[in-house]
Amino acid sequence: MRFLKLAPVRVVLAACALGAPGEALAQRVNDNAVAGAEDAFGASIGNERVGLYSSSEVRGFSPITAGNIRMEGLYMDRPASFTDRLVESNVVRVGLAAQNYLFPAPTGIVDYRIRPAGDRRVVSLVAGYGPMGGGRIEIDSQIPLSDTLSLVAGVAGFDDEFASGADAVYGSYALAARWRPMDKVLVLPFWSRVDTWDREATALHVAAPGVLPESVARRRYAGPAWADYRNIATNAGVLTRAALPGGFDLAVGLFRSVNDTRENHALVLTNVQADGSALRRISRDPRQKLASTSGEIRLSRALVRGDWAHALHASLRGRQRESLYGGGASLNLGATHVEDRVDIVEPVFALSTRTRDEVEQWTGGLAYDLRWRRRGSLSLGLQRADYRKTVQRPDRDRAVAHDPAWLYNAAASWTVTPRLALYGSVTRGLEESGVAPDSAANRTQALPAIITDQWDAGVRWVLPRNLRMVAGGFQVRKPYFAADDANVFREMGSVRHRGVEVSLTGSPVEGLSVVAGAVLMRPRVTGAPVREGRIGREPVGQTQRVLTLSGTWALPVEGLAFTFAANNHGRRAADQSNRTHTPAATILDAGLRYRFDIGDKPALLRAQVTNLADTFDWKVISSGAFEVNAPRTATVFLTVDF
Q1: Do residues 186 and 98 lie in contact, with contact meaning Cβ atoms separated by under 8 Å?
Q2: What's the pTM?
Q3: Residues 437, 440, 444, 449: is their CA dihedral positive or negative?
Q4: How many CA atoms lie within 13 A of 311 on its CB side?
Q5: Which of 435, 396, 344 has the alpha carbon at shortest distance from 621?
Q6: Strand ranges (DSSP E) for 432-559?
Q7: Can you say how many angstroms the Cα of residue 581 is from the centroid of all Cα atoms in its chain?
């Protein structure tokens, strides 16, 4: 367990270090998710990812959908996605990894780290091919301007193809600064943007009741060329940290995130039969926009006395999100086969008035943290959240929902021996629940905020050869959303995910580094619809088993390493009645990393083949609705630091 060192200095418990000038991590050649992973619960560095969980799935839920995003440890409401030009890495904080984290959340937290700006001028160039025929160029730089000011700047362009055969062109850009205007004060402003052009709509296969569709050809786009998606995602903000008189520490973050979808189409194949026959529908939406202003102010005070360290934190978080959605229209194209290409002239869609909603939320909290040197820790937190949502639907009166709530968290750990520690925690949170899927009658509608709770407990054990194992049990409860008899996606009961998770990381033999994990879970839905037989006990898209193994193995040639990954999941409930299930699947990846020099410039050549066996696996999007997974693909990346 990563305990804070006790010393006669301030102890600030937020895991939000902003880095220091001159860090080697600014060099892209050093990007290595396996080497950088602290555990197997999920980490991303650059375009590499390892672990059981990701920013889109933790213990069967999505931290991003829930709104559990942190930027350098501070709260941020982020409807728009980040770019790698701005973000160097992210880590999933759950279970043991959330022990030292202020105000944790039941669905886990994804903490993003901005690329550090050091005191050396470095320009990193990444040129890549793949994974499905596309190419990319990425340029990232750190530029010191003075002893107190450094910049990070990046630009990239790439052409991607997707498993469905749709493709898109992307441009991404970012600029950040690291400014120390005076001693013990750090200011970090940033801006980033991602442009998406000409991304065709990915086909959504909605099966007939009781039918699991047969596998279909991948990388074969069946929609019209005009059914595109155009999006602009921007994120901007500023973070400030300062040591104040009297032993206080101040951390402030203010952020603006805008997801602006200028054009959007949905290609839906409904009533899909086992022989591939279906009905085809194309929908178009008017401009959709999600914009949020959010931030956090945190004041901390630490007191160290001998082996004991106490810290008190006061936090105020706020957000105001404006959403503009709906108003779409559909065109039914009649009977077809799922692999038939449709090629028609773009029709005129009769778009309608959109829905507007506004969310205003303020959360004030106090947290106390106690550290006992080499013995244990205790963390307590209490928050009061005031959530207000106003919805203005076309031709309806304005609806206002006001949901104040008390939230809490408590965590404790005990160091039994230097190699063995126990931990446990309980958390209650207020989280978002996403939007209705494309297969629902109320597609794109924003769903209400929900109260969630979680407990977990486990053990950390340092094994011989410095292998680190974390094992524990958990339970997460939330309201459950599903389509009703009118195909309206709404709350239909509650869902409980209960299970055990295991992480093993380290180097069992010289030259071999591994990140291995397992989740064995029993997800269950309860409520009146289950008792009445209208929906099943298994939540849609959830599995009872996830296994992962990633690693690197140094080969006899200097600088050359073999990389490998295996990911397995059990069967998944494919519809809310539990009549169909997708089968278990294992995806295997393999590749090579070659670290060398071009003159006096460090370089990395990385080649990888994903889905070696070309395994077909339906991704369950919602009840009876599927998308195809990626086939066997190959990528080659060359990275050079100048």
Answers
A1: no
A2: 0.90
A3: negative
A4: 27
A5: 435
A6: 450-462, 468-483, 489-506, 512-526, 545-554
A7: 25
